[in-house]
Records
---
Amino acid sequence: MIFSGFLSLPWWGYVLVALGLTHVTIASVTIFLHRHQAHRALDLHPLASHFFRFWLWLTTGMVTKQWAAVHRKHHAKCETPDDPHSPQVLGINRVLWGGVFLYANEARNDETARRYGHGTPDDWLERRVYSKHTVVGLILMALTDLALFGLVPGTLIFLTQIVWIPFWAAGVINGVGHFFGYRNYDCADASTNIVPWGILIGGEELHNNHHAFASSAKLSTKWYEFDIGWMYIRILQALGLASVKKLAPKPVFAAPKPAADLDTLHAVIANRYDVLSRYAKSIKQLYRAEIERLAHWSPKDAHTLKTLKRALLRVQQLSETEKAKLAEVLKSSKALATVVAMRQELSALWERSSASKEQLLGHLQDWCHRAESSGIPSLRDFSLRLRCYA
């Protein structure tokens, strides 16, 4: 019996079992470790919270405090040399295939745990069992798999379980999610949405959305996106086992005000990524017109403009060489130089942490006045739209 297991299944049955067990682990990571512990986007009933802790102890051996601390540091130091796992710094191959080692190395850093690991469970079970005996849970899971499914199927299922999170979470999300994909929001980092349907990795595929609104319990923001982790949270909420604390803001528009006021300022700052996205769309026509104009008398500048399209239309981290190219080519287009400079000024609204509300409001009102008197139709129209945020 020990070799054949208590359950005899066809080969596809073992595959479905493995996928089911790993999906529970994925759901535990995204709901408990990520959205609940690291970002406090939702509260969990003790029954649900402890189930997730127990399951993660059995299947991953990860310590809650360490995971939350490493992830919070990633957000705080994103795409810098202090980021525990940035493919922009370390290279995509190192993070994709060796992400688990990068995580383990940072998890052993006592300073990271001390600085970023606050507010995580610290009860008797956490101190005496889950954190102290991380390997015991894995041993129990292995023995259970062997007893239920037999030697060969049980071993393969267990190996799949322990490899699943290191590859998909530590490798794919931390690697591919900062390297390939599409972006809804112009964050300062390189985060991307890998695909619009977050099923296999619990919704974590929508990584750019998460970096834009880190404290949101829901990772999907567009109508065509799906976050299965959010579906599970809604089920837990209906059962009284979860309560959502924060969601990404949705922009609301009204008739344009004669002048921006404090409500406009608050709405613009709260919806800053939507503002930047709409700004990029508003200057596309100007960008195309300037390329056509330059193509006649300065083909070289027109070609450079094409290569720097994303830097012109979106907020993007540039190398020193790219910055020099951009500064040079903008000398040939006063209109593009103006919209790029005014985008930087607009971004300063949510970057000036030391300014008072009155100072920020004055900055916004002055920005709108200069945009509407610039003689650039796209800037004028965007300023009118900006005064519609409510």
---
Amino acid sequence: MVAPPVRYTSPDEDSARWEGFPFRVGDIVISTRSKSGTTWMQMICALLVFQDPELPAPLAELSPWLDWLVQDRDNLFARLAAQGHRRFIKTHTPLDGVPIDDRATYIVVARHPLDAAVSLFHQGDNIDRERWHQLTGAPEPATPRRPRPSARDWLLDWIDRDDDPRTELDSLPGVMHHLFDAWSRRDRPNVLLVHYDDLSNDLAGEMHRLAMRLGIDVPASIWPSLVDAATFASMRAAADDTAPDQSGVIKDRAAFFRRGTSGAARELLTRDELARYHARVTGMAPRDLLSWLHRQDVAGD
């Protein structure tokens, strides 16, 4: 008997929106934690599907975020049903909260959790809170927001918090659960794990690997243009079409692509503080996953 999907909720997303989703052959589900390479993978899939660096529509229209409460579910399903191209759909839900369909391929991108957390912290300054409240219907806070702590203090608190992964998806327990669940499925033929650092270090090689796994043939003559369009610099330059928000929640779309490199947390934390992080995650995932995930820490010692 297959267990029902776990339900994940936050103020602006609900994994229950996946219930009854009509999959079709060839669907691609991109399942990532926030700031872990979601938009990057969406862009790579778009380039492989359309085989043209000039996409036919903004990326968020081609690859909608299915869990997002801002968009009407019925309208979103209708838009996806009308798409004639191979569909690639964004979700921040772990795979145990998404229907697993043999007709679809599930891609999970993993990034060093500390780097993703630092990026998430900085994204907080680029969110238009008033616009977000308008779109989600969430009430404005009764008291003024407190000044934000420094990135270092925020990160140390993030490491120590013991949040519920079902409601705090971007907490450390939430990130590690997402990755552990995907890791446990990595031998399935329709589940593919991708490391953020591999995209950074060998974008062309990873795009070739993805194309092979997805059964997509790309003429050799157009590979250079596709790889160039998938670079961080190219995506930032085209931020009006590549940033994930078309609703005005992001203040500066180019700033969404803030840095895109690894190692930011090592610049903020001391060796003892990094050791504190590693001690914390030791009980959250098996050793082989942690070694694969934290490769930059080993290389940096």
---
Amino acid sequence: MIIDVHAHVFAFPKIKLRGSTTFMAMEDQIAVMDAKGVDKAVILPLNNAESPTEHQSFGEVLYICAQYPGRFIPFCNVDPRLPLRPDLIKCEDFTFLLEQYREYGCKGLGEFTARMYWDDPSVLMLLEACEKVGFPVTFHTITADVNSYGLIDEIGLPRLEKALAKFPNLKMFGHSPGFWSEISGEVTAQEKNGCSKTAVKPGGKLKDLMRRYPGLYGDLSAGSGLNALMRDPVHAYEFIDEFQDRLMLGLDYCSVRNNMQHIEWFKAARAAGHVSPEAYEKITWQNINKAINLGL
């Protein structure tokens, strides 16, 4: 079995990305899944104000799931900036919403792309609500100097670390160049939000956080996740061996023009004996099955 933990799927996409195509229509997503042997995919709606595409209702997500029974797993998305005064937002405002999503079969929250600091009070209250209702959070993170989307942090991920310490029972699925660059030590400002091709240096903050905070998982989707492995294969095999219980396969197809090679890389690494069959099964489906209680 293979489960893709990071998919963006629309029923009737209309708005194109700059110089590209629309995000994936459900028929296109299913075609990719069938071609690559993916059994199920997690739909991550993009609803934060900074999201680079059309916003998506949860009703549309459920509609897609109903069109292809058993193929999709719904996540929800809630912007921390609810239409309330920021100083008056309470955790209960978020749990009230999340409990309703859970009743409709939702399994988590994401992709969290709001351009806000990790320690903004509204962000922290939303994370607290996710912890209370048992929703893991898939997040994108950047630094303040980048004109893009994602929770704002610095080199070394100090604000993420505070959130991990504050919510020890919350599962957080890390994603984005700003996250995966920290697999290496001595990260420069130029490397932080990109995909470095140099060998991984000792002292990576990401490994330190994963060793100390069992709620932190690695979502290996997109070019950033695959690059974190391919930039230094010897390091990658050691990293996979150590963290095989908290790494998860994702693809993050945002366009039919994408050609994500994560599955091919893992199959080749397994065939060559660099990744054990046990680790391969955990990463390709067992870890997400356990993390969101799919019962497979």
